[in-house]
Amino acid sequence: MQWLHILSLAAIWLRKYAVTLALIVTLVAAMAGAALFGAGPMPQQPPQGYVAERGRVSLSWSKGTREEPITLQISIEDPDFFNPIVDKKMNTNSHSVTKLERGATYYWRLIQGGNASPTAHFEVSRYNARF
């Protein structure tokens, strides 16, 4: 009977702290990867969820510490990048996107050494947009 109580308490503790433990493991793995292989590029601007009021947005990112070239990918309404509208190698850490569609959501990411950065996105206003 006492073992059942101990197992029950262990299960409660595990459920309570499993998410925290998973986050710690993920963070440690990311830190180890950055230490071994260098940090990759990270989207910086515009801020996540930005709503553009005109037909142009400037994207910028940190280059990271790796030596491999960076590829910028941009897609419309496609967070999985099956059909990117931009898929080009970049020598800079910024890019202007023009001729944006009203009411569309644009997703963008950076690829370096076969690894993708976190996906960022911005929207274009469907109302009162100055194009």
What can you see in these coordinates?
- The protein has 131 residues and is an alpha+beta fold.
- Helix content is 27%, strand content 35%.
- A hairpin with a 2-residue loop joins β7 and β8.
- The termini are far apart.
The structure class reads: alpha+beta
User: In CATH terms, what is the fold-level topology of the largest domain?
Assistant: Immunoglobulin-like
The low-confidence parts are: none
Number of helices: 1
Mean pLDDT: 80
What is the CATH C level class of the largest domain, in words? Answer: Mainly Beta
CATH architecture assignment of the largest domain: Sandwich
Q: How far is it from the N-terminal to the C-terminal residue, by CA?
A: 73 Å
Number of strands: 9
Q: How large is the radius of gyration? A: 21 Å
CATH homologous superfamily of the largest domain, by name? Immunoglobulins
Fraction of residues in β-strands: 35-45%
Number of domains: 2
Describe the main β-sheet briefly: 6 strands, mixed
Q: How are helices and strands ordered from N to C? A: HEEEEEEEEE
Shape: elongated
- Helical proportion? 25-40%
